[in-house]
């Protein structure tokens, strides 16, 4: 495994009066051997450099904690972060700063970091599974550190982030509680590091897009305006998947079509993939949506016609489509498309495949991990991250690192959300309302939606639907841009997609600034 050589000595700093190493933990009473997160903020800082587009960027990497306090100043949470800040000459203009996070809810934010956006990255073989160690971990030529300083934050309960004092995990596990904790942590970081005058961005992946959309509204209402928000693999409106609502089925169809085409399940192969997907979109939001809206009033002849059209696009038999009343869920599609081959497709990247028994015999179903696409990259990312954290960044603690804590956090998640313009909380979150309100209050706020066409977890057509329902005037609709990649949920896992992402993100930052 290759590592970036350190250019300076490890500096261990405490934000406060005394100097304390990062591994110092508050263990409570002498009789209590439980490892606890530190109440006092700790950090380790090391010096490095990375070369991007032929230019060398010296930077400081800091791994540490931010103490979240309530309105009375009582510490309630310790949020772990890793920041990469390019060194500048004294008096230079403030560089942009971006706060990044993954989703879940229940995921730490290492994936975006070592996936290639940070200065070091783990090379994977997507869309094929990456084998066991040794892994290739090298400086990332596609990092966006040349455009912006980067701060990766872990939600409370994930990574090394933990509740403090009398606070418990569920106090943070909900749409609005989660946003509040991130708002307090970001405000703390900005204040401690004197970054109030820096251009600011948020970057969320998966549920992180939900967080980012509500978070930008909250922070702007507190006086911290943003230049841009990047949404990777979005889900903003959870109401579309409620029972009796058909929009989720409609959102799936273009991603199903891309998957069927990739696996050779369509009779005719279109010459232009993106033109084909535009055609499928027209079918999905036109004849297909109309047929679903008719419900039980749909005639047999109409059902036959739609089933035949849909079969040509998604590679499933007309008999199966009629048996499901034209409504095919994501998990059903994964199992049905390659049934004749006894295979199942990936969830987060449907180009991946595994034997069908992979799901059937794997015990309790965890949608975050029970997936050949996830299995194909997880070890490379986690192994590289753990070595990077302790070896390159020098951060050591007795706490257990939690990369994915979904099985604990998700069942305890409070989905109620107080959206702008509503007197009472919505029972199911729709943060597109928050993002729309944030753009209306700050017309210079730019939004960049990045999407993998083989992502079945958060289909790109769903992102288009959510972002087109923000109640924006035509002039503000231009603030929203889209890009699409021949990759999955973690688009950066594919090296070709990562290179394209770098180009698109560089352009977005330049335009937003």
Automatic annotation (TrEMBL):
Keywords: Signal
Lineage: Bacteria, Pseudomonadati, Pseudomonadota, Gammaproteobacteria, Steroidobacterales
Signal sequence region: 1-24
Organism: Steroidobacter flavus
Name of the protein described by the UniProt record: S10 family peptidase
Coiled-coil boundaries: none
Pfam families: Peptidase_S10 (PF00450)
């Amino acid at each position: 495994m290759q590592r970036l050589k350190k250019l300076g000595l490890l500096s261990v700093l405490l934000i406060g009066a005394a100097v304390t190493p990062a591994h110092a933990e508050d263990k409570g009473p002498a009789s209590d051997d439980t490892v606890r997160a530190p109440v006092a903020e700790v950090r380790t800082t090391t010096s490095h450099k990375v070369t991007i587009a032929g230019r060398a960027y010296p930077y400081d990497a800091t791994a540490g904690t931010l103490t979240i306090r309530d309105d009375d100043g009582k510490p309630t949470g310790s949020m772990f972060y890793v920041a990469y800040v390019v060194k500048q000459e004294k008096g230079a203009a403030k560089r942009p700063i971006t706060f990044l996070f993954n989703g879940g809810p229940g995921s730490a934010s290492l994936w975006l970091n070592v996936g290639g956006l940070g200065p070091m990255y783990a090379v994977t073989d997507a869309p094929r599974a990456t084998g066991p160690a040794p892994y290739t971990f090298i400086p990332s030529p596609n990092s966006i550190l040349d455009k912006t300083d980067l701060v990766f934050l872990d939600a409370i309960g994930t990574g090394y982030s933990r509740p403090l004092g009398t606070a418990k995990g569920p106090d943070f596990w909900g749409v609005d509680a989660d946003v509040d904790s991130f708002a307090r942590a970001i405000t703390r970081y900005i204040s401690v590091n004197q970054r109030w005058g820096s251009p600011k961005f948020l970057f969320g992946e998966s549920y992180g897009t939900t967080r980012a959309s509500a978070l930008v509204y909250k922070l702007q209402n507190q006086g911290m305006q943003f230049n841009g928000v990047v949404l990777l693999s979005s889900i903003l409106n959870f109401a579309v998947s409620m029972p009796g609502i058909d929009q989720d089925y409609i959102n799936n169809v273009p991603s199903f079509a891309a998957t069927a085409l990739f696996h050779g399940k369509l009779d005719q192969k279109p010459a232009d993939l993106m033109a084909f997907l535009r055609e499928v979109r027209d079918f999905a939001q036109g004849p297909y949506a109309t047929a679903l809206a008719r419900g039980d009033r749909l005639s047999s002849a109409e059902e036959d016609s739609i089933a035949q059209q849909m079969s040509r696009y998604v590679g499933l038999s007309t008999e199966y489509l009629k048996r499901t009343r034209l409504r095919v869920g994501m998990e059903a599609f994964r199992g049905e498309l390659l049934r004749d081959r006894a295979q199942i497709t990936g969830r987060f990247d449907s180009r991946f495949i595994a034997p069908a028994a992979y799901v059937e015999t794997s015990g309790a179903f965890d949608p975050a991990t029970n997936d050949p696409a996830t299995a194909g990259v997880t070890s490379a990312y986690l192994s590289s991250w753990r070595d990077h954290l302790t070896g390159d960044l020098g951060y050591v603690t007795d706490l257990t690192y939690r990369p994915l804590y979904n099985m604990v956090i998700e069942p305890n998640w409070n989905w109620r959300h107080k959206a702008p313009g509503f007197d009472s909380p919505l029972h199911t979150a729709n943060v597109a309302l928050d993002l729309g309100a944030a753009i209306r209050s700050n017309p210079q706020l730019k939004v960049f939606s990045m999407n993998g066409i083989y992502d079945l977890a958060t289909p790109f057509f769903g992102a288009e639907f959510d972002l087109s329902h923000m109640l924006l005037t035509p002039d503000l609709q231009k603030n929203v841009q889209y890009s699409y990649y021949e990759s999955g949920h973690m688009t950066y896992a594919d090296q070709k997609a990562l290179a394209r992402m770098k180009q698109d993100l560089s352009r977005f930052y330049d335009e937003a600034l």
